[in-house]
Amino acid sequence: MAEVEDRRSRLQDDLEQVTELLQAYEARIEARDADEADAASQLSDSPELAKLRHKLDQMHPADVAYVLETLPVDERQVVWDLVRQERDGEILLEVSDAVREWLIEHMETDELVAAAEQLDADEIADLAPDLPPEVMDDVFASLSVEEREQLRAAMSYAEDSVGALMDFDMIGVREDVTVEVVLRYLRRRDELPDHTDQLFVIDREEHLRGLLAVNRLLVSAPDALVGSLMASEGIVSLRPEQDAQEAALAFERYDLVSAPVVGAAGKLVARVTIDAVVDFIRSRNESEMLSAGGLREDEDLFAPVWDSLRNRWTWLALNLVTAFIASRVIGAFEHAIEKLVALAALMPIIAGIGGNSGNQTITMIVRGLALGQITSGNARKLLAKEFLVAVLNGLVWGAVVGLFAFVIYHKWQLGAVMMGAMLLNLMLAAIMGFAIPITMHKLGRDPALGSSVMITAITDSGGFFIFLGLATIFLV
Amino acid sequence: MAEVEDRRSRLQDDLEQVTELLQAYEARIEARDADEADAASQLSDSPELAKLRHKLDQMHPADVAYVLETLPVDERQVVWDLVRQERDGEILLEVSDAVREWLIEHMETDELVAAAEQLDADEIADLAPDLPPEVMDDVFASLSVEEREQLRAAMSYAEDSVGALMDFDMIGVREDVTVEVVLRYLRRRDELPDHTDQLFVIDREEHLRGLLAVNRLLVSAPDALVGSLMASEGIVSLRPEQDAQEAALAFERYDLVSAPVVGAAGKLVARVTIDAVVDFIRSRNESEMLSAGGLREDEDLFAPVWDSLRNRWTWLALNLVTAFIASRVIGAFEHAIEKLVALAALMPIIAGIGGNSGNQTITMIVRGLALGQITSGNARKLLAKEFLVAVLNGLVWGAVVGLFAFVIYHKWQLGAVMMGAMLLNLMLAAIMGFAIPITMHKLGRDPALGSSVMITAITDSGGFFIFLGLATIFLV
């Protein structure tokens, strides 16, 4: 059983070996403390680097990508220089966006052209946004007419559309041929495209007529007709301009491995495979987590500090503005705080719990929208429920914080104001927590992005205003 | 091209039709304003329900699940009663955890047993946690010896392990037979298991020898030997007790459709397929989003209010405690605030931005840990970088808030204290934002869960303490 290994732990081992070889190499450089020229010359002759190059050659492109993402920039550069040029393309496809940008910045035009020429049209389209225009021109020039057509098609669709996920590497067959003919046709190629779980049955005008599962082919009699074996009812087909999220839901819902992409007039234009869908799901979830964490985009762990700062400033600036507003709201009630300084100590509680509760509502609604579970039919019922939950929470937690205030400051009026403010702020949180994502969705924007900042801003300023306002009326 | 439809929009149509039929049915009930008994008797004879049952019979189980998740509870009950009993099982597998619990609560023991008996061992294992013990006993009794073994095996592994994802529906072949023999063997079955992209090559002791891609089979000569066609080098194989997250990474990394699960001594025990992995990825991301939003678990959109409250209280209570602590920190400085009330208006800015910046660091580290990019080798470098970013942010944004304070309150000392407090709180945020997830990871806990609450608590109380402390020393 030596052949079968636990790939994950092997990956850790690979990383360790690479790091050790790199350290040995750096040690040698320092020992020799050679000048630039010598150091450069050693690149080729150092035995560690020879070992390292050999190691990298054996590794799966995705694993090389993992190593590159994990290494600090200087060591990353050494490793990248050792990767064989014909593998550059497939590795660029595997690394994270941030690291890809870094690698491309550090490559020559001719290297980039050579790398891109190793790839299929749809893969080049994935790299295209990061490639300098002069590189794309050379690449275009090097492609066949058909490939150019495909590249133009793939590049013409938005990043989050089916068109951005599709590839053109598929097998079409005719309805009126037998299994035997299809098998002979397949045997003529030494291998089938990855993820070929079904063949696409098309007519002479390339209209999609049905789908023939490869496994169906395996278990069928040689003289059976494709038309009699293919599925044609209720097929899942996608349109290139469709939202990739819908494609992901379809793959998940119907457990697909591949699906046809059909253009105008039902012509088969491409296919989408599960590996592209999984990458999309992963990267989409990542960007949701990142924006939830207040980061604008995927960040290279070892990005230059300046890039990190740029990546984080958008949100810090946004939060600063909302914080200033909240601060001015408090400022408007300074006379009340002067009279009763306890208000200053208590007000963050009202704001904090309000934000927490509002974010709970937002999370529910955003998820419901993403899964298409919220309809005009049930929206009102949902709002009513969220509001009821808020009222009950307001009474329960309002009582708790009211008691807290009373115990510490021995003023029952203060406790009452706390409770009232908590109740009102949670009601505000529920209404806005429902309204914000629904509105963004109606406006065609992604409710997952930014909703949380908005609700927090509202429940902060709103909470301070409600609490200090009530206090001014009833206490001071 | 009438057969090929856009499945997603069709799903919306299905939902509309179902809702209309339900409304027509309810209208009829009200019109007749019959008593319970009559109402019950109508269930069978009403033409709307007949139409509805027919409609449901035609729908994919995943689509029926979608409809059930989207309907309010009373209508959900009507639809569930109309679903054919032999489909109950497959639909229970498709619905969200929360809705599944609800459905199971509303089913009789014998219905549940009947539903479970429709399923494979690994599918029953998925339902097991929600099924009452007496049901599981009856199910066990109804299984064959082999199925019982499989069910026990599948149930014996943790929820987030490979064992929970695996199924037993796979095809093994021997090394020493020809392609022709394999094909004849396959033709004997009328269909292959779903997601059969490869056959598992095993010896007499069921040790995994290699993998034979189905597509390889298709394009090979009939007299070729399996041993000569199979892949045996660097195969990706999983262990049942392995973390499911590692399996997901492997499927994503190496674009797998299925992978063998190998037990002690390299014996083939089961396989994992991409559809199970996609469901795992989706549900894992969901629980991350939910916990980030302060929800304990997946919540049925139409859960009884009481369930919703229970689901949300854990986090509200937790935040309340941290808010109380922050409040007492402020309380300790009331004398300073009395002397200079502006402090009350300015302190939320320091706390807010600190929390924001800390969450950015946490997000980076949690993501790095999840992708296995953070090693003992690069951890120190990372901390240094995050700290540097924090210092620079502290100087820039500190200057901004300092200016803000000066402009509004015309006290340059106040501005200076603001700047100093911002700088210190962002440094605190960076160190804790790094330390918290790393520590949780070392303790074997999921750093994605709870880190955010902790960092916010620290930057709130810490921010108030730093700001008010500096103010007490230098201002009042």
Summarize the structure.
Chain A is mostly helical and 476 residues long. Chain A is built from 23 helices and 7 strands. The first copy, chain A, is globular and about 90 Å long.
Textual characterization of the structure:
Chain A is mainly alpha-helical. Chain A folds into three domains: 2-161, MgtE N-terminal fold (Alpha Horseshoe); 172-274, Roll (CBS-domain); 305-474, SLC41 divalent cation transporters, integral membrane domain (Tetracycline Repressor, domain 2), CATH 1.10.357. Helices cover 68% and strands 6% of the residues of chain A. Chain A has helices at 7-32, 36-45, 47-58, 61-70, 73-82, 85-94, 97-105, 109-117, 121-127, 133-142, 145-155, 162-165, 179-187, 214-219, 226-229, 244-254, 274-292, 305-331, 334-339, 342-370, 379-409, 412-442, 451-474; strands at 5-6, 172-173, 198-202, 208-213, 236-237, 258-262, 268-273. In chain A, the strands form two sheets. The first copy, chain A, has a three-stranded mixed sheet. In chain A, helix 20 runs antiparallel to helix 23. Chain A is globular, with a radius of gyration of 30 Å. The model of chain A is unreliable at 1-5 (pLDDT under 50). Chains A and B meet through strand 1, helix 1, helix 4, helix 13 and helix 14 of A and strand 1, helix 1, helix 4, helix 13 and strand 4 of B. Strand 5 (236-237) of chain A pairs parallel with strand 1 (5-6) of chain B.
